[in-house]
Amino acid sequence: RAMELSPSQFPAGRAAAVALGYLRYLRGGPGRALELRELRSARRQDIDDVGHKYYLELELGDVLDKDRTVKCTAEVLYPLESTSSAPDVQVALQGELRSTEQADKEFYNHIRSLEKELVAENIPDSHGNVPPELEPIHLLAWVASGYVIWQNSTENTKFHLAQVKHVRQVKRSDEDLQFDYVILLHEMVSQELLPWQVTVLWHPQRGARVSQ
């Protein structure tokens, strides 16, 4: 049987951060970034010889679409500590996210038309500003961080994307866009800032994939 948790309790918030990271990786892109608007309910179940499972009800929004929220149910299973595998996440969205087809196409064509590969650092800058032309690059970093957060979270961690330290576009012979990121993740429990190197491939039809 599952035990009710207050949404404000740390374990509930940590599990929600994993579900959100997974969803950012799955459904995010240069034109969409999901944020948690509200954690509505949380329950925890201890499954013998398997691990701890959290059942969550979330309200999510798109940072570029302030007026709309979508409901989401998520299950996050943290395997027992003896295994080093990532939490197992299942998510279901109720409601539609705004289409990003047009924005995706424009971003794709813009990057393909650059004569020199894009290179940037410190997004946002020390004042918290992101130049408009780098916003899609920043949102793709949310996707990258979502993957890292999902893969590396435990019940005792809570990661948050602090900054893109460096990003470099790499020309490819296929249709994908490739960006090599160094991102800084803030681990809220230990207060550590951890750099991660992440390579993201993106295509308007196929979405984003982290290749390493």
From TrEMBL:
<feature type="domain" description="Cystatin LXN-type">
    <location>
        <begin position="119"/>
        <end position="212"/>
    </location>
</feature>
<protein>
    <submittedName>
        <fullName>LXN protein</fullName>
    </submittedName>
</protein>
<keyword id="KW-0646">Protease inhibitor</keyword>
<feature type="domain" description="Cystatin LXN-type">
    <location>
        <begin position="1"/>
        <end position="102"/>
    </location>
</feature>
<comment type="similarity">
    <text>Belongs to the protease inhibitor I47 (latexin) family.</text>
</comment>
<keyword id="KW-0677">Repeat</keyword>
<dbReference type="InterPro" id="IPR049897">
    <property type="entry name" value="CYSTATIN_LXN"/>
</dbReference>
<dbReference type="Pfam" id="PF06907">
    <property type="entry name" value="LXN"/>
</dbReference>
<dbReference type="InterPro" id="IPR009684">
    <property type="entry name" value="Latexin"/>
</dbReference>
<dbReference type="GO" id="GO:0005615">
    <property type="term" value="C:extracellular space"/>
</dbReference>
<dbReference type="InterPro" id="IPR046350">
    <property type="entry name" value="Cystatin_sf"/>
</dbReference>
<dbReference type="GO" id="GO:0008191">
    <property type="term" value="F:metalloendopeptidase inhibitor activity"/>
</dbReference>
